Every structure is written in structure tokens, then in C-alpha cells.
């Protein structure tokens, strides 16, 4: 089982790359995490955001595989505790499917991505900066795995 994080945004600051890298390298071989950066849609003063969101959706859909279990990160999703996330990791592993965690751009996810989701997860009711979401997501996946594996990190 592989965890793939498809996130809109490129050229993250060094501190983001370093933070994400730290947690990605801690994940076990049987549950690797891969970040896939999606180029943002074109935005300008006079452009309609729907067009940019659709461009991002096209790019995200092109990276999805038919068999992927799709989980969207959305403000309207359900809040999961670390224990719930750990339970989900265990369920996903049992299913044997790769999981695609979808992180939208500054204006959210394309409705086609939300429609493809089997689960919707809200990291927080707060609006978080996209670079920080990547680190929080990577750390929470590692924490959930550590709980599942009985590793002392979670304590």
C-alpha cells in the first residue's frame, strides 16, 4: 500500500521540504508516502477562479489511477482524531489499495475530485497555509502509523 499526496502547489520553501522529508523517510517500506505536486491553475486579476480550479482538477485527475482510494482534505470533511486516522490506515492497508490524499489549491478542490472521493477529511476548521498542511499531513500520517505499529512516537 502506498500513500500518495496530490497537492496543488509547487516550489515549496526549504523548511517545508525539510519537514515533509523528515516524516516521509520515517514511514515504513510497506507504507511509503509520496508527494505529487500539481501545478496551480492560471489566475490573474481578470480571470474566473472556476477556470483555475478546473485546470487543477484536470491535472489531479490525470494523476489518479482507477483503483486508488481517494480521500479529499476539505474543510467540510469530517474531523478525525489520531486514533481514527490510525484505524483508517489499518483499514486501508487491509484493503490493499493505494490511497490518494487530495489537497486543493487556494480556492479549494474541483467538484470532480470531491465527487470521486470515498472519504472526506478535515484537518481543521481553521484555514491553514498550504505549505503547513503538507507538514501537518506528513506528521499525522507518521503518528497514525506509529500508533498502529505500537511505536512509542505517539506517546
Automatic annotation (TrEMBL):
Ligand binding (S-adenosyl-L-methionine): 73, 104, 123-128
A family per Pfam: SPOUT_MTase
Keywords per UniProt: Cytoplasm, Methyltransferase, rRNA processing, S-adenosyl-L-methionine, Transferase
Superkingdom, taxonomy of origin: Bacteria
InterPro entries: Alpha/beta_knot_MTases, RlmH-like, tRNA_m1G_MTases_N
Keyword hit for Cytoplasm: yes
Coiled-coil regions, chain positions: none
Subcellular location: Cytoplasm
Entry EC no(s): 2.1.1.177
Keyword S-adenosyl-L-methionine in record: yes
Catalytic activity: pseudouridine(1915) in 23S rRNA + S-adenosyl-L-methionine = N(3)-methylpseudouridine(1915) in 23S rRNA + S-adenosyl-L-homocysteine + H(+)
CDD domains: RlmH-like (cd18081)
Family, similarity comment: Belongs to the RNA methyltransferase RlmH family.
Function: Specifically methylates the pseudouridine at position 1915 (m3Psi1915) in 23S rRNA.
Oligomeric form and interacting partners: Homodimer.
UniProt protein name: Ribosomal RNA large subunit methyltransferase H
Biological source species: Larsenimonas suaedae
Amino acid at each position: 500500500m502506498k500513500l500518495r499526496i496530490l497537492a496543488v502547489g509547487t516550489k515549496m520553501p526549504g523548511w517545508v521540504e525539510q519537514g515533509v522529508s523528515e516524516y516521509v523517510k520515517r514511514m515504513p517500506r510497506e507504507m511509503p508516502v509520496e508527494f505529487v505536486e500539481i501545478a496551480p491553475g492560471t489566475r490573474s486579476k481578470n480571470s474566473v477562479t472556476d477556470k483555475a480550479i478546473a485546470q487543477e482538477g484536470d491535472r489531479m485527475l490525470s494523476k489518479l489511477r482507477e483503483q486508488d482510494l481517494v480521500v479529499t482534505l476539505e474543510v467540510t470533511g469530517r474531523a478525525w482524531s489520531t486514533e481514527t486516522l490510525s484505524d483508517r490506515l489499518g483499514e486501508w492497508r487491509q484493503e490493499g489499495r493505494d490511497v490518494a490524499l487530495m489537497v486543493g489549491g487556494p480556492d479549494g478542490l474541483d467538484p470532480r475530485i470531491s465527487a470521486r472521493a470515498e472519504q472526506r477529511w478535515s484537518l481543521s476548521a481553521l484555514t491553514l497555509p498550504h505549505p503547513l498542511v503538507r507538514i501537518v499531513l506528513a506528521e499525522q500520517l507518521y503518528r497514525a502509523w506509529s500508533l498502529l505499529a505500537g511505536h512509542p512516537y505517539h506517546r
